[in-house]
Design a protein that fits this description.
Protein name: Argininosuccinate lyase
Family: Belongs to the lyase 1 family. Argininosuccinate lyase subfamily.
Distance between the termini: 56 Å
Number of helices: 18
Number of domains: 3
Catalytic activity: 2-(N(omega)-L-arginino)succinate = fumarate + L-arginine
Strand order of the largest sheet: 1-2
Oligomer: single chain
CATH superfamily of the largest domain: Fumarase/aspartase (Central domain)
Shape: elongated
CATH architecture of the largest domain: Up-down Bundle
Number of strands: 6
GO molecular function, one term: argininosuccinate lyase activity
Largest sheet: 2 strands, antiparallel
Structural class: mainly alpha
Strand content: under 5%
Radius of gyration: 31 Å
Organism: Caloramator proteoclasticus DSM 10124
CATH topology of the largest domain: Fumarase C, Chain A, domain 2
């Protein structure tokens, strides 16, 4: 069944039918489409456009369709233009011509707009819940493994931190990701239903009722904007891209950590794969796939920005292309978060390997500089002195704390016996504002 056609003399070309069809994509919106239709028909009864018996018949038919889809008796398949024509066609089969009254004072333009907004509200709440699980997973793994490790800049050993503190950096990133999604949900929380094609309707409908019935904060203000707005999808795809960037960075670090050169962590067999040729290989494919799929989500963001960049108001068929890229990104983000949760939960942290790594790279050199500054040496001079100490250590193949006092004094008379305690790795994190590295900061 078509939802249009009265002014056409010829049937649509078969190629055009396939080209125009979006049912294979937007059938995913069936719940929201039916919920939106139920709210709409209730409103039509409330304002006396439909009789009570008509309203009851249509609602019962829609609820029956929903139930049959949910329990598998009704398959989302067939030669339908979109989910809207599928639902209306199935309703017509069940209740007869009264089904034709459902679409009064509504267009597919505002119908799909409200469907998509409801879908996003439902699905983003689930993504946020997954982010919460990953946050707690990182916190737990860090708390169970609060071992000293080197922190890096430029992938070079820089200063001592703890494994827990490193993971907590990703907790902060994910908390920002969550805020971005919550902000996007707040901005989109306006119902476009009742905007019709672009300019409302001459019927006295009640948009406040349908807005409240569907759980929106309020109706949208401008009909033209309502049916052509996809800002919220851009904003969420942007947030998804940032989430994926964070997951990709964490993936890269764990990939590095589980190499034989680092051995900071050992991945579980559950989230690793092998080689068809090299029997010794244990590959971090779970993390490499997260890293790779990040580009896929970036592509969706660029896709939708490009679709919308030159569209005049109001609705244009180009907008049909918004769903495929959004659904794909949603699915990608969901599975990547779930896989990362599994990776973090099951990976083993190797305390001894991290402790051994601390002795490489002179990562207490900055603390020697701080020590000299406390002794009255200007910072730039202290920096120069410690740089020469490091050069000397490289020549001798020794750590700074392994030099004897006479050797250290040859670089500065300000250095005393208390330096050894000051630059001991177990003491460094107890000094100054470094103590926050060891504190529970939420």
């Amino acid at each position: 069944m078509k939802l249009w056609g009265g002014r056409f003399n010829k049937d649509t070309n078969e190629l055009m039918k396939r080209f125009n069809n979006s049912f294979y994509v937007d059938k995913r919106l069936y719940k929201q489409d039916i919920r939106g239709s139920i709210a709409h028909v209730k409103m039509l009864g409330r304002v006396n456009i439909l009789r009570k018996d008509e309203v009851d018949k249509i609602i019962n038919g829609l609820e029956e369709i929903m139930m049959e889809i949910e329990d598998g008796r009704l398959k989302l398949e067939g030669d339908f233009e979109d989910i809207h024509s599928f639902v209306e066609s199935k309703l017509l089969e069940r209740i007869g011509d009264v089904a034709k009254k459902l679409h009064t004072s509504r267009s597919r333009n505002d119908q799909v707009a409200v469907d998509m907004k409801m879908f996003v509200k439902d699905e983003i709440s689930a993504v946020i819940s997954k982010i919460d699980v990953l946050i707690e997973c990182l916190k737990k793994k860090g708390k169970e493994n609060e071992y000293l490790m080197p922190g890096f800049t430029h992938l070079q050993p820089a200063q001592v931190i703890t494994f827990r503190y490193h993971l907590m950096a990703y907790v902060e990133m994910l908390k920002r990701d969550k805020k971005r999604l919550l902000n996007a949900l707040s901005l989109l929380d306006e119902s476009p239903l009742g905007s019709c094609a672009l300019a409302g309707t001459t019927n006295d409908i009640d948009r406040d009722f349908t807005s409240n019935e569907l759980g929106f904060r309020c109706p949208t203000k401008n009909y033209l904007d309502s049916v052509s707005d996809r800002d919220y999808l851009i904003e969420i795809l942007s947030a998804f891209s940032i989430i994926m960037m964070h997951l990709s960075r964490l993936s890269e670090e764990i990939i590095i950590w589980c190499t034989p050169q680092f051995r900071f962590v050992t991945l579980s067999d559950e989230y690793s794969t092998g080689s068809s040729l090299m029997p010794q290989k244990k590959n971090p494919d779970s993390l490499e796939l997260i890293r790779g799929k990040t580009g896929r989500v970036y592509g969706s963001l660029i896709n939708i920005l490009t679709i919308l960049k030159a569209l005049p108001l109001a609705y244009n068929k180009d907008m049909q292309e918004d769903k495929e890229c959004f659904f794909d990104s949603l699915d990608t983000v969901n599975i990547c978060i779930e896989v990362m949760i599994g990776v973090v939960e099951t990976m083993k942290v190797n305390k001894e390997e991290m402790l051994k790594s601390i002795d490489k790279g002179y990562i207490n050199a900055t603390e020697v500089t701080d020590y000299l500054v406390k002794k009255g040496v200007p910072f730039r001079d202290a920096h120069e002195i410690v740089g020469r100490i490091v050069l000397y250590c490289e020549e001798k193949g020794r750590a700074i704390e392994k030099l004897d006092l006479d050797e250290l004094k040859s670089f500065s008379e300000k250095i005393e016996e208390d330096l050894y305690e000051y630059i001991d790795y177990s003491n460094i994190l107890k000094k100054g504002n470094k103590k926050y590295i060891l504190m529970e900061v939420e």
